[in-house]
């Protein structure tokens, strides 16, 4: 899968995509991540891409022309591309949404807004779907894009060691334990639940179901 990111700050992704599962997925060519900075598509000599909003109001708005060119570059001649407009007022991103997107598309474009937002005509022209990762406002869409890429990438065959590694596809508890069997902290003992040491898989599975 190829993720295309429209952002003014591509460097903000560097450390995360260079680490752990995402880095290995890129190395194994299971996923690809490309960046398109609207500043590279403006004719303004100062590389300015924000303007005052019509009708007044605080802050600045990302102007449409450079964004449209950046999206066109990302889209290329591909006929089937999912374009996501990251917005706090959009539909909620879920595991189910991620599964459907991975099953249906090979190319996904994320439009990361900044400042007071993006000229609405950009979304309308490309029929981009507004999506939010939660009921809060972020400084920009970059963090939201990273969250969605991480969730989607895990569902691509070969990114994780086995399909069962997906937590939602196995019976798993949010309560997990490892060595030592008895942890002593400030004079108090904290023990691993006996059922997990029993070797009785049926009882362990039942315990996990009761401790989601």
Structure write-up:
Helix content is 30%, strand content 20%. The protein is built from 7 helices and 9 strands; from the N terminus they run βααβββαβαβαβαββα. The strands form 3 sheets. The chain has a 5-stranded parallel β-sheet. It has a two-stranded antiparallel sheet with strand order 3-4. Strands 8-9 form a two-stranded antiparallel ribbon. β5, α4 (95-104) and β6 (107-111) form a beta-alpha-beta unit. The mean pLDDT is 91.
The count of DSSP E runs of length 2 or more, i.e. the number of strands, is 9
Give the N-terminus to C-terminus distance in angstroms. 31 Å
Q: Roughly what fraction of the amino acids lie in strands?
A: 15-25%
| SSE string | EHHEEEHEHEHEHEEH
Q: Could you name the key traits of this structure?
A:
30% helix; 212 residues; 2 domains; Alpha/beta knot; two-stranded antiparallel ribbon; single chain; alpha/beta; 20% strand; five-stranded parallel sheet
């Amino acid at each position: 899968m190829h993720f295309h990111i429209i952002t003014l700050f591509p460097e903000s992704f560097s450390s995360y995509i260079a680490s752990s599962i995402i880095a290995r997925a890129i190395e194994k060519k299971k996923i690809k991540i490309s960046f398109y900075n609207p500043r590279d598509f403006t004719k303004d000599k100062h590389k300015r891409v924000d303007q005052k909003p019509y009708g007044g109001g605080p802050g600045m708005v990302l102007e449409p022309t450079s964004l449209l060119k950046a999206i066109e570059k990302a889209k290329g001649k591909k006929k089937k591309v999912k374009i996501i407009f990251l917005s706090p007022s959009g539909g909620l991103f879920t595991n189910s949404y991620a599964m459907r997107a991975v099953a249906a598309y090979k190319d996904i474009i994320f439009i990361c807004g900044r400042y007071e937002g993006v000229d609405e005509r950009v979304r309308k022209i490309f029929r981009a779907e507004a999506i939010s990762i939660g009921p809060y406002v972020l400084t920009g869409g970059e963090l939201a894009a990273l969250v969605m890429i991480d969730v989607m990438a895990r569902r691509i065959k070969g990114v994780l060691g086995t399909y069962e590694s997906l937590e939602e596809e196995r019976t798993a508890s949010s309560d997990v334990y490892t060595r030592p069997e008895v942890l002593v902290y400030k004079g108090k003992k904290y023990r691993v639940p006996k059922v997990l040491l029993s070797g009785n898989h049926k009882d362990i599975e039942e315990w996990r179901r009761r401790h989601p």
